[in-house]
Amino acid sequence: MAHPVQRQAEILELAPVGAYHRLVLRAEGIAERVLPGHFAALAVDGADGSLLLRRPFFIHRADPAEATIEVVFAEAGRGTRALAQQRVGDVVDVVAPLGNAFAIPTGPASALMVAGGHGSVPLFGLAERITEQGGSVGFILGAPTADRLFGVEQARAFTPDVLVTTDDGSFGIRGQITLPLTEAMRAIEARVVYAAGPTGMLRAVAEVCAREGVRCFTAVEQTMACGVGVCMTCVLPVVGDDGVSRLVRSCVDGPCFDGSRVRFDDIGAVPPDLEGAAAMGER
Ligand SMILES: Cc1cc2nc3c(=O)[nH]c(=O)nc-3n(C[C@H](O)[C@H](O)[C@H](O)COP(=O)(O)OP(=O)(O)OC[C@H]3O[C@@H](n4cnc5c(N)ncnc54)[C@H](O)[C@@H]3O)c2cc1C
Ligand code: FES
Questions:
Q1: Ligand 1 centroid vs 54 CA: distance in angstroms?
Q2: Whether this model's pTM surpasses 0.85
Q3: Ligand that comes closest to the CA of residue 53
Q4: Count of the separate structural domains present in the chain
């Protein structure tokens, strides 16, 4: 847990970027503690209280000198639509930084960033950290359609090793993100893969990494209610260091997990070998 604070954050910028909205917030005491993988929980509608739960978003950038954090979000439903209708100068109630951060390799390493849609949002800060310590990165960015890609130019400014896929072929390689994955991992001799995006994509990436014997970290997006470890809405089955599977809270124990430990096929279920599962069944 990243010792979050709650702030009334002023909106400095809110502008569309393709299918997404880029939101820059000014709030003291947050940016200096943000690590890649942390997220922020934003109150989306203070007006009538009908959208009570905060909505979680990965922190894209954090600038301690300006006391700003930036998130990038798609309009998915009522909460994000309400957020998109805010104006520069409005105030948003924010709790951040939340969750854990990505594990970063010690020393120089070649890392492949694999992002589905807005999954690239938390990966750029991570790519910066890895290159700062002498490593190198490549990117595969994928989405169903071209307008759902985020960060293609940003990735290209970072490295020549960028592949883009779209399911409908409207940009880059036609097909799913896993299509060029093995080749891309081998081409840059990736020691580690970082993946963020939809659960099905994370499962597929983790499978390829396991096959190739490459370390894999995944940032999951389980639906969250409290965001601070109290309500258990966000649990998913993860294998612990002792080999025992447990339901863990993705808001405080995650959202960044060793992909080989997440039981993607069992998300939403209580597998019988899970610690405590028998006792639950006996009740
Ligand atoms: C750790 C984390 C980081 C995320 N980062 C980003 C990001 O950087 N950019 C981005 O566009 N989206 C991100 N999301 C997803 C974003 O939180 C949801 O799109 C948003 O909460 C939907 O709210 P809504 O009211 O607009 O939609 P709703 O009408 O409530 O739901 C629309 C869809 O969003 C899902 N959803 C609803 N509430 C949540 C919730 N609290 N947590 C997760 N999913 C939810 C629903 O299952 C449904 O599929 C992230 C989610 C998590 C858990
Ligand atoms: S969202 Fe409440 S415990 Fe994770």
A1: 10
A2: yes
A3: 1
A4: 3
